[in-house]
Design goal:
The protein has about 325 residues and is mostly helical. α1 runs antiparallel to α2 and α5 packs antiparallel against α9.
Length: about 325
C-alpha cells in the first residue's frame, strides 16, 4: 500500500492544505470562469433581449447559450483549478500528480476504464428499468445530431471535472487526513462529508432539501473513498465518477439537475429517497464485482496507516 502512506513525508502541515485549497479554488475558479463570463456577456448582447430569471442557476439557456456549449464551459473551471492545485501541491508538499493519485506509480488506465464501464452499465440498467416502470414520467427527446454532439462533449470534458474532484477529495484531502489521524476510516469519512458539503449549493439541494439530498452526496463520497482505499489509488473512483456524470448528462435530466443538457430523457418527477436506495444497492453490487476482479482485501480498512519502511511492489 502506498497511496495514503505517501502522506508520511514531513510535508503534511495543516496550513499547507488550507493555503493550497484556498489559492487553487480562488485562482482556478476565477480564471476558468472567464470563458463562461464572456459567453454570457456576448450572448446577452447579441440577443437584444432581457435575460429571464431561472429557478436553476445552472440553466445557461436563459442567456442564449447552447446547453452543450454550456456544459463544456462549466467544466473549464475544474480544469484550471486542478492544474493550479497540482502546481501548488508540488511546490508546497513536494508531491507529484502521481503521488496524489496512487502514491507514485504510473496511472492505471485499465482500472479507470473498468470503473467507468461497469458503473455506466449499472446506470443504464437503472435508467431503462425506471423508464419501463413509469414511462409517463419521462419525455423522450430524440434528436440524433444533438445527442451525438452532447455525447462527444460529455465524454471529452466531464472526466476532467470528475478527475478534479477525486484528486482533491480521495487524493489530496484523504492523504492529509491519513497523515493526521493514521486511521483509514477517517480518511474515507471526513473527505466524504466535505464532498457532500461542497455540493450543498447545487440546484438539487435547493429543490429537494438539504437533509434529503445530502445523504446521497455523502454516500457517494464514502463509496469513492472505500474503493480508493482498498484499491490503493483513485483511478477507479475517477472512472465511476466520470461514468455517472457522463451517463446522467447524456440520458436523463430534470428541472433541478446540475447538468442542464438536452439529454435523451426529461424526467418530470424525482424521488430522492428511492434514488438513495438505488445508489446504495448499485454501490454494493459494484464493490462486490470489483473486489472479485481485483482481489481487494477489505481487512486493510482496519489496519493503522504507518510510514512505508521500504519500497513495495504494487500490481498494475
Amino acid at each position: 500500500m502506498k497511496h495514503l502512506e505517501r502522506s508520511f513525508d514531513g510535508q503534511n502541515q495543516w496550513w499547507k492544505f488550507l493555503l493550497v485549497l484556498i489559492l487553487a479554488f480562488i485562482i482556478g475558479q476565477f480564471i476558468g470562469a472567464i470563458p463562461l463570463m464572456f459567453a454570457m456577456i456576448f450572448s446577452g448582447a447579441f440577443s437584444g433581449e432581457n435575460v429571464a430569471p431561472s429557478e436553476n442557476i445552472m440553466d445557461f439557456s436563459v442567456y442564449g447559450i447552447n446547453p452543450v456549449l454550456g456544459l463544456a464551459l462549466m467544466v473549464i473551471p475544474f480544469v484550471t483549478t486542478l492544474i493550479i492545485a497540482v502546481l501548488l501541491v508540488r511546490s508546497f508538499h513536494k508531491r507529484s500528480l502521481k503521488d496524489v493519485i496512487n502514491g507514485g506509480i504510473k496511472f492505471r488506465w485499465g482500472r479507470m476504464l473498468s470503473g467507468f464501464v461497469l458503473w455506466a452499465g449499472i446506470v443504464v440498467i437503472l435508467i431503462v428499468a425506471d423508464y419501463k416502470v413509469d414511462p409517463d414520467n419521462f419525455d423522450v427527446r430524440l434528436d440524433p445530431f444533438r445527442l451525438i454532439t452532447l455525447a462527444v462533449v460529455a465524454i471529452v470534458f466531464i472526466p476532467f471535472q470528475a478527475g478534479a474532484e477525486e484528486y482533491f477529495f480521495r487524493g489530496y484531502l484523504a492523504q492529509g487526513v491519513a497523515g493526521w489521524t493514521k486511521i483509514r476510516w477517517t480518511a474515507v469519512l471526513i473527505p466524504a462529508v466535505l464532498f457532500g458539503l461542497l455540493h450543498s449549493s447545487n440546484p438539487e439541494v435547493k429543490e429537494y432539501g438539504f437533509w434529503v439530498t445530502m445523504p446521497q452526496y455523502i454516500l457517494f463520497g464514502i463509496f469513492f473513498g472505500l474503493i480508493s482505499d482498498t484499491d490503493d489509488g483513485i483511478e477507479i473512483a475517477v472512472g465511476v465518477h466520470a461514468g455517472h456524470n457522463v451517463l446522467s448528462a447524456i440520458f436523463v435530466t430534470t428541472k433541478a439537475s446540475t447538468l442542464q443538457t438536452p439529454a435523451l430523457l426529461y424526467q418530470h418527477e424525482v424521488y430522492p429517497m428511492r434514488d438513495l436506495l438505488y445508489l446504495f444497492l448499485a454501490s454494493a453490487l459494484f464493490i462486490v464485482l470489483m473486489s472479485v476482479r481485483y482481489k481487494w482485501n477489505f481487512s486493510i480498512l482496519q489496519v493503522k496507516i504507518t510510514p512505508l519502511q521500504k519500497e513495495q511492489p504494487v500490481s498494475e
